[in-house]
Amino acid sequence: MNIIEVRDLTKRFNGLTAVDGISFEVEKGEIFAFLGPNGAGKSTTIKILTTILQPSSGQVRINGHDPLKDPDAVRRSFGIVFQDPSLDDDLTALENMELHGVLYKVPAKTRRPRIEMLLKLVDLWDRRDDQAKTFSGGMKRRLEIARGLLHHPDILFLDEPTLGLDPQTRNHMWNYIQEINRREGMTVFFTTHYMEEAERMAGRIVVIDHGKIIALGTASELKERTATGSLEDAFLALTGYEIREEQASGSDHLRAIGRAFGSRK
Amino acid sequence: MSTIYILWLRQLKKYSRSRARVVAQLVQPLLFLVAFGFGFGPVFERAGNGSYIQYLASGIIAQSVLFTAAFTGAELIWDKQIGFLKETMVAPVPRWQIMLGRTLGGATVACIQGVMAFLLTLLVGFRPTSLLMLPAGLFFTFLIALFFTSLGTAIGSKVNDMQGFQLTMNFLIMPIFFLSGALFPLDGLSSGLKAVTTFNPLAYGIDGIRGSLIGVSHFGLPSDYLVLGLTVLAVFGIGNYLFRKIQI
Q1: Is residue A69 very low, low, confident or very high in pLDDT (cuts 50, 70, 90)?
Q2: Which residues have a Cβ under 8 Å from the Cβ of B101 and sit 6 or more positions away?
Q3: Which among B58, B53, B24 has a CA at the least distance from the CA of B36?
Q4: N or C: which end of chain A has fewer CB within 10 A?
Q5: Helices B95-123 & B19-46, crossing angle to 10 degrees?
Q6: What is the dihedral of CA A108, A96, A33, A60, to 10 degrees?
Q7: Of A145, A148, A99, A95, which Cα lies nearest the Cα of A123?
Q8: Distance (Å, rounded) from C-alpha B102 to C-alpha B133?
Q9: How far is residue B43's CA from residue B48's CA, in Å, rounded to a whole number?
Q10: Which of B17, B94, B247 sits opposite A90 (nearest CB)?
Q11: How far, in Å, CA of A126 to CA of A103, rounded?
Q12: A230 to chain B, minimum CA–CA distance in Å?
């Protein structure tokens, strides 16, 4: 059974096509990696799958529901760890966890022990009563991951979850995720720039570039297809060696326009 | 229910942790109270209108409420920028509950700020004429708070940067405040100004507080209640609609 179905999905922002007619399916219980260089359209796709953005065209089904028609049913199906920070800095680590637990309707009986277990997993239990604004970047990242794992959804989206984490935390995190995946059949959909992580964790991998899917298969299939020895080389062979610039925000966009006009002189 | 409660509680926690904000949002009303109250007091009294502090107090209470309440919109933009809004927007709860929790939280904070402003007015000599009517005064305070948190949320939903928000607020909030009867009586105004104040929802809110606290009312408490209640419903509806449409 396919838990995620995407058909001809397109998203345009003022003339710029971020996602260009992509189609793929993810099976229930799969660990699925979504790879691509910066600005390839990964985060935009995740935002559409998680109801934050609306697509320009195409169909999406999450757990059988359409994010446009029934966003609440879709939101009941997934959990997400965002690429950018999304903590409330004024609240303590514990309060951030509690708030998430209440929003995601984790019953108090399960919530309290699980919060303790997760904060210990990411080594923040001793700092539970400190406001998130006193945390370093790495600690905030760990808190976000602990928070994302607090409820066990049907689908877990992880957008570059391990960025800036040390190998120990990464290891803890993936062990925990793999265990829920095995025990509860939770589907995992993640993006990463660490190719060895994708190779180790993902059953199937999709490579997206310039908004289009350019490869889909297991790590060994991708290596075979590109006649390379590692996924990193396969990735480079598929997407090229050129460094990409990301259109991050409105002001970046304005700067780009400024450059375009400046070069006409 | 728990969603609304936890987001309401969040607003209160954030407020209680920001002493600077509590003080800053009291300084402005205090300044108005002292400068206007004592500055215009003698003129007001010579014109035969009685004590100006008695008149002005209700306006000052409303002022501190409306600025604190409108600040909810700035918090919304802030939550967009730090990313926290995303966390709530993907949660498996209806967005109207998120909006309601935030709005009630902002309104509660604004009411607390209003009560503190009330205590300040007592310090400078304001005396409510009827203690029995204090709850009615608090009720109007809460309606004003709801009106401006909803308005702030509506604007904060559409605007993405703080500067834009400040600008919109200055264009909207300042005229609403100055043309509301907060600072001067509505009786005997020129017809133009009279028309403007008649369509200003805040005028009814302040009139309601004043009617409750000192028993002097321009429109009468039932009309105050009716007009303000209806506009609160309308603005809340608009704020809720725009909030649900937010894309990040």
Answers
A1: very high
A2: B3, B4, B5, B6, B7, B8, B10, B11
A3: B53
A4: C
A5: 50
A6: 80
A7: A145
A8: 28
A9: 9
A10: B17
A11: 24
A12: 35
In three-state secondary structure terms, A131 is strand
- ipTM value, please give it: 0.87
β-strand partners of A131? A92
Q: How many CA atoms lie within 13 A of B186 on its CB side?
A: 24
Cβ atoms of residues B118 and B208 within 8 Å: no
**CA distances for A192 relative to A161, A179, A188, A197, B129, angstroms:** 7, 20, 13, 8, 67
Distance, CA of A183 to chain centre: 21
Contact predicate B76/B85, CB 8 Å: yes
**DSSP letter string over chain B?**
-HHHHHHHHHHHHHHHT-HHHHHHHHHHHHHHHHHHHHHHHHHHHHTT---HHHHHHHHHHHHHHHHHHHHHHHHHHHHHHHSHHHHHHTSSS-HHHHHHHHHHHHHHHHHHHHHHHHHHHHHTT---S-GGGHHHHHHHHHHHHHHHHHHHHHHHHH--SHHHHHHHHHHHHHHHHHTTTSSS-STT--HHHHHHHHT-HHHHHHHHHHHHHHS--SS-HHHHHHHHHHHHHHHHHHHHHHHHT---
Which residues in chain A touch residue B14, judged by CB atoms under 8 angstroms apart? 88, 90-91
Reading the block at residue A34, the tokens are 């979504």
Cα B91 from Cα A100, distance rounded (Å): 8
Identity of the residue numbered B152: G
The answer, for A78 touching chain B at a CB cutoff of 8 Å, is: yes
Chain A CB contacts of B91 below 8 Å: 75, 100, 103-104
Q: Tell me the percentage of chain B whose pLDDT exceeds 70.
A: 100
Q: How far apart are CA B55 and CA B124, in angstroms?
A: 13
B84 vs A87, A98, A250: nearest CB: A87
pLDDT band with cut points at 50, 70 and 90 for residue A165:
confident
CA A93 to mean position of chain CA atoms: 22
* Across B201-215, average pLDDT: 95
B1-16, pLDDT tens digit by residue?
Answer: 899 999 999 999 999 9
- Residue partners of B143: CB distance under 8 A and separation at least 6: B205, B208, B228, B229, B232
Residue with tokens 């005028």: B203
CB A205 within 8 A of CB A222: yes
> Element (H or E) spanning A223, and its range?
helix A219-226
Closest CA to A195 of A233, A156, A148, A228: A233
In sequence order, the 6+-apart residues with CB closer than 8 A to the CB of A4 are A24, A25, A26, A32, A49, A61, A62, A155, A187, A189
| A17: phi then psi, degrees, rounded to nearest 5 | -95, 110
* Amino acid sitting at position A70: D
